[in-house]
């Protein structure tokens, strides 16, 4: 009973902490919006490099506040609520429930402190996994729409429309989720932000380098001039090849992911078969405390190995 109360208090404190962080991020987002409206039309000196051109470097060494670092670790972006299929509070409840269940059962085998710590770690891992899955799904949908969007801009420019009208045609004629992101980017432009800076903000929200390429292209064209339609057409061709390459890498990695799943479930299939052939082996294994600890250790190593394989496959695909 005391163990259950302790784990419940730990889960409640975890939910309260993460909920407070999310609420604080929401209030910070509203405050930044008010400041942006107040300072609309004023030049942002810090955002413009010395040469007047956007920087092509995608990573900077600027320091981030602690709250932003925590939300970034959880893969939760309060600036893009439309990417969340599951509401953030439901995701926190799922993570807390998973951590409570794991911590409760581990408390009987490894003790209360280790059980509570493992439960909190599992809860955070589940929350981060759900947020990451939703973010990756949203970003991949946008990534596949970028070549068609740039192609639409090229056709609009060749028809004689300015770049602003070409972007409005993308926001009007494309489907979600790219339509919402372009509409939000055009909203930034409407309140006085330059187009290249608005695109860089779009890059920071989605973490897609294609938007930074587009921002640099438009920034350079504004400063130097040239045939914008031809430049965007070349960029669309490059992005289209990147999309095809990403799909090919995903298809080639499907076999490795399948092998990783088979390696993970194979021991448990063998244990299930053994329970049907010689039931007393498995019964003694699970009734014995030592056997229960060994089963948990084996399950933990299986999950850890599967995650390591998935991480290696993802890194190889990104390279």
Describe the structure.
With 319 residues, the chain is mainly α. It has helices spanning 2-38, 66-73, 88-110, 112-158, 163-173, 178-190, 195-206, 209-224, 228-277, 279-287, 289-318. Among the domains are: 142-241, Receptor-associated Protein, CATH 1.20.81; 242-319. The radius of gyration is 25 Å and the shape is elongated.
Strand content: under 5%
Main CATH class of one domain: Mainly Alpha
Unreliable sequence segments? 37-63
CATH topology of one domain: Receptor-associated Protein
* Broad structural category: mainly alpha
What are the main properties of this structure?
0% strand, 319 residues, Receptor-associated Protein, mainly alpha, single chain
Briefly summarize what is shown.
This protein is mostly helical and 319 residues long. Helices cover 80% and strands 0% of the residues. The protein contains eleven helices and no strands.
Topology:
Elements (H helix, E strand, L loop, with lengths): L1 H37 L27 H8 L14 H23 L1 H47 L4 H11 L4 H13 L4 H12 L2 H16 L3 H50 L1 H9 L1 H30 L1
